[in-house]
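Dear support,

We are seeing what looks like truncated structure output for some complexes. This example has two components. We would appreciate it if you could run it in full and send us the complete token output so we can diff it against ours.
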Amino acid sequence: GENVEQHPSTLSVQEGDSAVIKCTYSDSASNYFPWYKQELGKRPQLIIDIRSNVGEKKDQRIAVTLNKTAKHFSLHITETQPEDSAVYFCAASYNNNDMRFGAGTRLTVKP
Amino acid sequence: DVKVTQSSRYLVKRTGEKVFLECVQDMDHENMFWYRQDPGLGLRLIYFSYDVKMKEKGDIPEGYSVSREKKERFSLILESASTNQTSMYLCASSLDMGQGLTYEQYFGPGTRLTVT
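Here is the complete output from our reference environment:
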């Protein structure tokens, strides 16, 4: 089955700096790669996703890149703000029932 | 507004008790999932269901069972709770329009279960 590894496990940046979180996956058949943000005490919520027919996707300050050959994808957050502080999870899926999550990255943005 | 609800936010049970966790979604989603979330381990899939009365094991099904009698409701059952089942349990649902495409999973608020 799919195995997703996520790095780093913790990340601390100064407000205004960029943050990058990386994930690798094992199943070359995976074709959907979402990123979820979980604020303290709240449910995970989708912030951006990418499908395997696209190499990059942007939404304001966040972007995701996908390298299918290397089987890795990354989340990029620019101009970080304190409200970006949360745990971020990547995931990879081949079909609707087979999504596997990374272990999470705790991002802290220091004012 | 999309909504997934779970029956309890916090639950304390004793070792050996039978525990029921319920999840309800109002989006007419075909797929429903149960995960447990532990620090450093992310979200691990326990069971999922792609239709009423249908279920599939995830990565960690041991000690759990599920029931889906109605499309909107998916229950997780701990037959005999043990201390190593103390965790945060998250339910999720997603659309299935066939064609092998995956869609966003919507999560419930979670149930923090403590087994003493």
